[in-house]
Amino acid sequence: MTSPSQHGMPGDAAQNGEDTLRLIAGLPAPEGLADRVNARLRTAPRRAGLLHWPIAPIMGYRIQSPAFRAAAAAGIVCIVAGGGWQIFSHVQTAPAANAIVQPARVGNSGGFSNAGAMRMPDTLDRPVLKHPLPSNQQDSVAPAAAGQAAPAKKHKPVKHGRKAAPDQR
Amino acid sequence: MSAGLTLPWMEIAPRAVHDNARQHATDQAVAALVDEYAPTLYRVAFSVLRNAADAEDAVQEVFLRVLRHRDSLHDVRDQRVWLVRIVWNIVLDRKRRAKTRPETDDITELARVLPAAGMTAEERAAAAQHHAHVLSLVDRLPPKEREVLMLSAFQELTSVEIASILGITESSVRSRLFRARNLMADLLERPRSVR
């Protein structure tokens, strides 16, 4: 073992340090260490695995077969999916709001508003004369107005091309 | 139920028997590992943690991890090096997370565990103080050099095994050990020198 008197000798300094490390490394393990570790391992939780069917661990029957497990898993999936669909089909979504809220607009007149009054344009169903016509003019106007509905007068078609050239001279 | 009536789904599955037998065999193998390597792992853990309770706790954690990966136990080539590497990583992680231990704690613990045959109480206290001082200087070494120096103190570990534990080459182990010894000599000769 390294003694304190050796500490301070320049030549053996590194060796001195390694001696300490070797001394520490060579310390014996406490008594009963392996027993304590083994006891702890026995009480340690086992690795998570497949859940056993209640009868299976006792009798070890073929009920543990993969096909049976697959069928059970499929049944669970169907139940969960059916429940989810039932909930989904019964939940009604809220209707969308029809009114659109718009922020109040501030007019260009420095904050003065028109108190909600709206300007209605002078748009009517048909044109209205400002000054009513006399009765005889109304008669002459009437056929003219009626003529608008009559078929349009046939115009002489304009000929284009060489035959039309002499007439233009 | 009559003896003649045996439904096909009531037959005992051979896999259930094999599972139990295999689990029993694996438990036996882990128990054998504990008996063989627990003292070595404890010494490795103690050299880093310098506390008996913490070292024992680290050893238990090692075998709990082994138990968790017992299915791949047969794939391990060198179980001793594998276990030392596990405990080394555990204790380094714990040391990193723990606060720096004061030197007085080391003195107390070393005075308790160091062999004191033929020594007076004063000599024992002085020896513990000296070793604690050396260990505090070891803690001042750079981590790479410190790790190699500490593992090289274990007689049963060759440089190849140290390289395997640290995940480096054997030549790196030698060069780091050389640097560690030089730094350690400097620190012991001039304790206040800055590395």
Care to describe what's here?
The complex is a heterodimer of chains A (169) and B (195). Chain A is mainly α. Chain A has six helices and no strands. The longest helix of chain A has 25 residues, at 66-90. The model of chain A is unreliable at 1-11 and 163-169 (pLDDT under 50). Chain B is mainly alpha-helical. Chain B has a domain at 14-98: RNA polymerase sigma factor, region 2, helix turn helix motif (Rna Polymerase Sigma Factor, Chain: A). Helix content of chain B is 72%, strand content 0%. The termini of chain B are far apart. At the A-B interface, α1 and α2 of A face α1, α2, α5, α6 and α8 of B.
Distance between the termini of chain A: 141 Å
Helix content of chain B: over 70%
Largest sheet of chain B: none
Mean pLDDT of chain B: 83
Secondary-structure element sequence of chain A?
Answer: HHHHHH
Named at the architecture level, the CATH assignment of one domain in chain B is Orthogonal Bundle
Low-confidence stretches of chain B: none
Order of helices and strands of chain B: HHHHHHHH
Task: Find the CATH superfamily of one domain in chain B.
Answer: RNA polymerase sigma factor, region 2, helix turn helix motif
Spatial gap, N to C terminus of chain B: 83 Å
The oligomeric state is heterodimer
| Apparent shape of chain A | elongated
Report the largest inter-chain contact: A-B, 39 and 57 residues
- Strand percent estimate of chain A: under 5%
Low-confidence stretches of chain A are 1-11, 163-169
Number of strands of chain A: 0
Strand content of chain B: under 5%
Rounded Rg of chain A: 54 Å
